[in-house]
Amino acid sequence: MNETTQMLKNLGRRIAYLRKQQGMSQEDFAEASGKMINTISNIERGLSDPKISTLVSISNALNTSIEELFSESQENPTENELPSNILVILQILKKQDDKTLQVIQKQIEALLELV
């Protein structure tokens, strides 16, 4: 993995972490940032190289600075720190398309409301 690819993956993980810290779904975040949900999904998965204007919209929606988006916070666990069952789930999810991921996300949220 080259340096740019790794940086985009780190950026995506950080954005997803900050979004979740604020209790926002990808749909809520997409609306707040004025971006399409597939754009947000691709950025969070490190598949997209966002423009500066997109980063400004994202940082505004998260009420943070662009610098904070690139922060190497220890609060965001790396895959090596996750339990093995979560890693298996992540591997399965990484193979899914955006539409399937949205369905899975809604199903997980509905299940968690029952707990």
3D structure, described in words:
With 115 residues, this protein is mostly helical. It is 67% helix and 0% strand. It contains 7 helices and no strands. The protein has helices at residues 3-21, 26-33, 37-44, 52-61, 66-69, 84-94, 98-114. Helix 2 (26-33) crosses helix 3 (37-44). It starts with a helix and ends with a helix. The relative contact order is 0.13.
End-to-end Cα distance, whole Å, is 39 Å
pLDDT < 50 stretches: none
Mean pLDDT: 87
User: Approximately how much beta-strand content do the residues carry?
Assistant: under 5%
Report the sheet with the most strands, covering strand number, pairing sense and barrel closure.
Answer: none
Helix content: 55-70%
Summing up helix and strand content along with how strands pair, one would put the structural category as mainly alpha
* Helix/strand order, N-terminal first: HHHHHHH
Shape: globular
User: Could you give the count of β-strands?
Assistant: 0
Radius of gyration from the alpha-carbon trace, in angstroms: 14 Å
Helix tally equals 7
Keywords, please?
115 residues, single chain, mainly alpha
Give the topology.
Layout: H1 3-21, H2 26-33, H3 37-44, H4 52-61, H5 66-69, H6 84-94, H7 98-114
Helix pairs in contact: 2-3
